[in-house]
Amino acid sequence: MDYKKKTLQQQNIKEKYGLIARNSGSCCDFGPSPCCSSSIETPIELSMKIGYSPQEISEVPEGANLNLGCGNPQVIASLKPGEVVLDLGSGAGFDSFLAARQVGSQGKVLGIDMTAEMVKKARENAVTGAYSNIYFQLGQIERIPLRDNCIDVIISNCVINLSTDKTWVFREAYRVLKPGGRLAISDTIALTELPEEIKNDLDLFSACFAGAMEYKKLERLLETIGFSKISIDFADKGFDITQYWALSHNPKDYIRSAAISARKIV
To answer: Which residues, 6+ apart, have CB-to-CB distance to 237 below 8 Å?
Structure first.
């Protein structure tokens, strides 16, 4: 991918998600590709459809849940008290706050996001919720600002598809994970190679569609980097939010949401 194209994609993503953060909206409210359908009546219903419990939804500060996810990484993370968690593309902090409750006062959660407005909003939400074990930082997930071997679990929710250099995202993830550390990711995955007209569409890229990586390529990439116990699970999802997105191309023909897990075994 050429530098100019990458730059345009990154700018478009920052503008879209900055707008969402500033207006306390959701992906259902802005841009050409709403992620909600008429069959989903409320943001709470949407969150429940993709795997969150009513208790989880009610536990986070108001304004943290912007309905930007495509699954619930908490389900596959199996977080334990005392663990150190990194949330890639933490947004307004929804998954970070849930993780912070699970790891407890002896654990720690760091959220990284490339959008300044999202980081600001997440920090405000942390103050509102009186969280003392969570930190939000502006940064790029392709260049994680952490030392080697310091993270127990990496979570992410419908964000890595937005990266213009996924190889570096997973290389960096591997670097910062401790030996035995694990990935727990919900994301959009392509069932086949996407047509060029989709991959070159800026709006579809920022809509978590055009940047979806083909699952066989993702599996090979994770293996090449060094991950083991790799699982890309489309099965038993119950509800796949991508199939309800109103886009110029039918998502059913190209992408699915998936649960992605892997371990760093050294």
So the answer is: 71, 256, 257, 259
- The CATH architecture one would assign to domain 3-264 is 3-Layer(aba) Sandwich (3.40)
Q: Are 181 and 262 in contact (CB under 8 A)?
A: no
Burial 67-87, CB ≥16 within 10 A → b, else e: bbbbbbbbebbebeeebbbbb
d(CA 33, CA 59): 29
3-state DSSP assignment of residue 169 = helix
The predicted-structure confidence for 190-226, as pLDDT tens digits, reads as follows 998 998 988 888 888 888 889 999 999 999 999 999 9
DSSP letters, 102-147, are HH-TTSEEEEEES-HHHHHHHHHHHHHTT-SSEEEEE--TTS--S-
The answer to whether the CB of 89 falls within 8 A of the CB of 113 is yes
Q: What whole-number distance in Å separates Cα of residue 78 and Cα of residue 19?
A: 33
Between strands 227-233 and 255-264, the pairing is: antiparallel
Beta strand extents in the chain (DSSP E only): 84-88, 108-113, 134-138, 151-157, 177-190, 213-214, 227-233, 255-264
Residue 258's DSSP bridge partners are 187
The 10s digit of each residue's pLDDT in 225-263 is 999 999 999 865 556 777 766 666 777 788 999 999 999
Whether the full predicted model's pTM is greater than 0.90, yes or no, is yes
- Average pLDDT for residues 168-172, to the nearest whole number? 98
Return d(Cα 40, Cα 47) in angstroms, integer: 10
Where along the chain do its domains lie?
3-264
